[in-house]
Design a protein that fits this description.
The protein is mostly beta strands. Helices cover 5% and strands 45% of the residues. The strands form eleven sheets. The protein has a four-stranded antiparallel sheet, with no helix packed on it. Strands 7-8-9-10 form a four-stranded antiparallel sheet, with no helix packed on it. It has a four-stranded antiparallel sheet with strand order 11-12-13-14, with no helix packed on it.
């Protein structure tokens, strides 16, 4: 009977629980189901409108009929007559739309967009209507579409990451109706770029793309572009053969095969210039045709391409590209470049920046990095380093005060004399390098104890206060190496004077109670040892 009564009782309790939910809770749940809306306003916004005649890093394509250019500008797509003039905006809003490419019949335009919450391939009609999402990757994002000649598929770079935030790409093929896609190339590792700047031959047999072939298995910043970083590779879709087609000094990137199948235009670094080159597919000859391109990104991480996308005209006589903020039409035979003037109306939604009030150079502030703390022998005073200065305070709750007023150099590593009346410390100045100083705890003028500039560390008194032991370093890549010779452990009289060499290795040295030996550490990691020697370096012992 008790079991039968339990079920109705629970049913009565359930409505009471759900009645606690507020309209705000319901809204949050609905938003969570929908996911992040890139186009929604996330905080206060304002519309910024202006007209421009130039752009930065503009990807473009020429329509199959040769009448128009589609290009990206500040994350929107624009259509422009090939002769130039007023550009018509096709897409708008906060979504970032880039890398447009006309379909073979010119009816639709493929592009990369984050409008669904991540970089994916989309298409729109030539007038900007009827947006259709092709890929729906939510982690291995894709970009850089290239149409197959039949207009049924799009090739793109699919991005992979592993233990490093950088990543590598692969060439994948997707049907325009969607789907999971087909892998065409395999990345060699998870850091060196591959599958970038994809283009197909006019017959669709060959897939051209650029890849980082600089060697090794990791991405490195600031490689030498005058050697070879990127090369143009070619995949034969019939045989599966993958070859390095265009190589050599200055590398090769952004391949664009001509409509007649005779040439491949590409970008190469020549000393400090990014140069447009032409590769003859019949002879293998390579020749420069334009040397006023804007700077390419071979040394950087070029997930969206080493250079913005450009295109041939349908008659294979001209190349249309972006450089120096403008659009250009280059006659391949005569090498004459003519600017294509354009005027584009820009409208961007700008979200108000989140700002917090900051007080510049306040008279006092909370020090968040307390270092080199040393307590006086009587336990009444603490001396420490903060923001490159020495401070003293009475324990337990005294107010910190400057120990020295020297503004010409920073001070570090304070240590008390046995009677607590003197503090010895190291200093640093970019002009004068390092030194060892002492100063009375009560204040006063610091006394310089070392005459030779260098890199000094951990000075400490002997038990009778008559001597100081310290380490002299060799310098480093930040501080420099000048006056870094004869490194090692030294001792000197407490009032300075002649330094006495103990031995070369060791750090964190201190005297024994008798003052005739010093104890110190050597090594690092799991190989540390604690040792001692006489003041002349003899009678070494490992403790």
């Amino acid at each position: 009977m008790a079991a039968r009564l339990l079920v109705p009782l629970l049913l009565l309790l359930v409505p009471a629980v759900f009645a606690q939910e507020t309209p705000a809770d319901t809204t949050k749940k609905e938003e969570a189901k929908k996911g992040w809306d890139v186009s929604a306003a996330h905080g206060p916004t304002q519309a910024v409108r202006f007209t421009t005649t130039e752009g930065t890093w503009v990807n473009l394509d020429v329509s199959p009929d040769g009448a128009e250019i589609v290009f990206d500008l500040l994350g929107d797509l624009y259509l422009l007559p090939l002769a130039g003039g007023k550009a018509t905006r096709l897409t708008s809003g906060p979504a970032f739309d880039v890398q447009p490419r006309f379909s073979p019949d010119g009816a639709r335009i493929a592009f990369t967009s984050d409008r669904a919450g991540g970089d994916n391939l989309w298409t729109v009609r030539r007038d900007g209507s009827d947006p259709q999402q092709v890929t729906k990757e939510d982690f291995r994002l894709v970009n850089g579409p290239a149409w197959t000649p039949d207009g049924q598929y799009l090739l793109a770079r699919k991005h992979f990451t592993s233990t490093r935030s950088l990543g590598a790409g692969e060439v994948w093929m997707y049907h325009v109706s969607g789907g999971s896609g087909l892998q065409l190339t395999k990345r060699k590792n998870d850091q060196q770029d591959q599958g970038n700047e994809i283009a197909l031959s006019p017959d669709g047999r060959y897939v051209y793309f650029s890849e980082d072939m600089s060697g090794g298995s990791t991405f490195q910043y600031n490689k030498d572009p005058n050697g070879q970083i990127y090369v143009v590779r070619r995949l034969d879709r019939e045989t599966g053969k993958l070859e390095n087609l265009i190589t050599g000094a200055g590398g090769a990137a952004r391949p664009q095969p001509s409509p007649d199948g005779k040439h491949v235009a590409f970008v190469r670094r020549v000393r400090a210039k990014s140069v447009l080159y032409l590769y003859d597919l019949e002879t293998g000859a390579q020749k420069p045709i334009y040397d006023r391109l804007s700077h390419d990104q071979q040394e950087a991480w070029a997930i969206f391409g080493v250079y913005p996308g450009f295109a041939w005209t349908p008659d294979a006589r001209h190349l249309v590209f972006w450089a120096e903020g403008k659009l250009w039409k280059l006659d391949v035979a005569t090498r004459e470049a003519v600017q294509i003037p354009f005027e584009a109306d820009v409208e961007q939604t700008v979200t108000e920046a989140l700002r917090y009030p900051q007080q510049i150079s306040p008279p006092t502030f909370e020090a968040r990095m307390i270092r080199d703390a040393a307590t006086a022998p009587d336990g009444q005073t603490l001396v420490f380093q903060a923001v490159g200065r020495l401070w003293k305070k009475r324990l337990p709750d005294g107010v910190p005060q400057r120990l020295t007023t020297d503004e010409a150099r920073f001070a570090y590593e304070p240590s008390f004399s046995p009677d607590g009346g003197t503090v010895v410390y190291t200093t640093w100045s970019d002009a004068d390098l390092g030194a060892i100083y002492s100063v009375p705890l009560s204040g006063g003028t610091p006394r310089k104890l070392t005459a030779r500039p260098g890199y000094y560390f951990t000075p400490r008194f002997s038990a009778d206060g008559a001597k100081i032991v310290y380490r002299r370093g060799s310098g480093n890549s930040l501080l420099g190496f000048v006056h870094g010779v004869e490194e090692g452990l030294y001792w000197m009289q407490a009032d300075g004077g002649t330094p006495h060499f103990i031995q070369e290795d060791g750090y964190d040295a201190r005297f024994n109670p008798a003052g005739d030996r010093v104890y110190f550490q050597t090594g690092g990691g799991l190989e540390k040892q604690y040792k001692s020697v006489r003041l002349d370096g003899g009678d070494a012992r490992t403790h």
